[in-house]
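Exercise 3.2. Students should predict the tertiary structure of the chain below and write it as structure tokens, then compare their answer with the key that follows.

Predict this chain's 3D structure.
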Amino acid sequence: MAHPRRPPLLSLWLLLVFAATAANALHFYLDTNEKRCFVEELPTDTIVEGHYRALEWSESEQKYVENPNLGILVEVDELETGHNVVKTRGPSDGRFTFTSHDSGDHSICLSSNYGTSWFSSTHIRLYFDIVIGTTKADTEHDRSHVSELSQKLRDLNMKIEDINREQQYQREREAAFRNLSEETNSRAVWYTLVQIGVLVATCVWQLRHLRRFFEDRKMH
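Answer key:
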């Protein structure tokens, strides 16, 4: 009976160190109840997303096939503190997400603890893809940034209101100056007309006076 070729079995195999902020995909082989682990050094508050897909070796078909009864156990631990971050059991095709609480090395372990039979040795091909994202958003920093922007907007609105008031004041002063200029021009016109009237009246009076003067002299 043919069996697929597999790498040597280890209870704890440190397989690969992934590059931060990158996606890494690989596949490996394991047996039932065998655990494979990966070590990743993570900064604090870093979001990690993983996707796995397990196929079981079928003797009848002589290939790896999907088995709905196959389950995968995912465990994530902080190596320095021993704190368990994630421990979840999922289907043969699943995802998991966690956020690192402390900086340092984290072990990501996958294993299959049940298959088509509890007593048979099941050979599994496991596809594993992990994405190490950016650090988690700093909520307090975002709030302070928003508060700072709000304060700047309020200051800007106050300056705009001051400018509007100043423009309104200038418009009122301009209107008052225009009214004063129009009133002064109107008075100047009336004063000129009065002067012309006085001059005309004076000329008429002088002409009449001269006429009477000459008429009186002719009579004598």
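Discussion points: Strands lie at 23-31, 35-42, 46-58, 63-65, 72-78, 84-90, 93-99, 104-111, 123-135. Residues 1-23, 115-119 have pLDDT under 50 and may be disordered.
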